[in-house]
């Protein structure tokens, strides 16, 4: 009887250590997707590997899909490594009560993503989805595209509009890299590694200011197109870091 008990205990210990090792290996694989220097300050990371909508930063800020949004090919043709949205079907990904975003704007933060828009004007990401402050603003902050597909970032009562290098060309059905950095009053927008807007103290008070630290996280709402490799940082990225992000291959395994 003692022998059986000891054997069972040994098997249990081996299983526990085996699970722990597996978790460690998965975490290493997730971190290896970004170079070491680009891992600093990551609070959420959505590369959509194998169609997963989990946060691969290790912070467990996992998304939910209550719509018909679906995995699709990424910018390098990898299957199930990006996400497709159709605004006509009200498709989006979401995270309820994202407390990890509370107060993030006070210390400065950055958002990096790849997008492909199929129509003029689109939503990309927002904290909350109630309409307020600036015309076109949604929630506490939001990143979107205007009718001419210029990237626009709203936060509280501030707005920044990124005029693309070729403003007369509506860039549809093309993959583009987009980064915004914000310390509330100084907003910067980078497209394909290039700084296309740097606005400080650009205030618009055309509507009510949304409450801070409230609202769910919405990704892909009001977009007909694709998104990939979304990263939220709690730091202000530098030009060097943004250039490195732009030159990375898709995080797809």
From TrEMBL:
Pfam family, any one: Laminin_G_3
Domain of life: Bacteria
Protein name, UniProt field: LamG domain-containing protein
Species name: Winogradskyella maritima
């Amino acid at each position: 009887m003692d022998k059986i008990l000891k054997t069972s205990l040994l098997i249990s210990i081996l299983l526990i250590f085996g699970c722990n090792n597996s978790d460690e290996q998965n975490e290493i694989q997730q971190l290896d997707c970004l170079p070491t220097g680009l891992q600093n300050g990551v609070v959420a990371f959505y590369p959509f590997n194998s169609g997963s909508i989990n946060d691969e930063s290790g912070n467990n800020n996992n998304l939910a899909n209550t719509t018909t949004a679906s995995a699709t090919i990424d910018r390098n043709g990898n299957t199930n490594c990006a996400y497709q949205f159709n605004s006509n079907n009200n498709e989006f990904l979401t995270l309820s009560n994202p407390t990890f975003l509370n107060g993030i704007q006070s210390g400065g933060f950055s958002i990096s993503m790849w997008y492909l828009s199929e129509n003029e004007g689109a939503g990309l990401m927002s904290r909350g989805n109630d309409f307020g402050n600036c015309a076109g603003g949604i929630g506490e902050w939001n990143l979107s595209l205007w009718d001419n597909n210029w990237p626009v970032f709203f936060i509280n009562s501030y707005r920044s509009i990124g005029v693309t290098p070729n403003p007369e060309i509506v860039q549809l059905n093309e993959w583009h890299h987009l980064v915004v950095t914000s310390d509330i009053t100084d907003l910067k927008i980078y497209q394909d590694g290039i700084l296309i807007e740097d606005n400080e103290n650009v205030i618009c008070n055309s509507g009510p200011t949304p409450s801070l630290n409230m609202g769910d996280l919405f990704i892909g709402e009001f977009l007909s197109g694709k998104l990939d490799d979304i990263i939220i940082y709690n730091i202000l990225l530098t030009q060097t870091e943004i250039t490195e992000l732009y030159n990375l291959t898709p995080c797809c395994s």
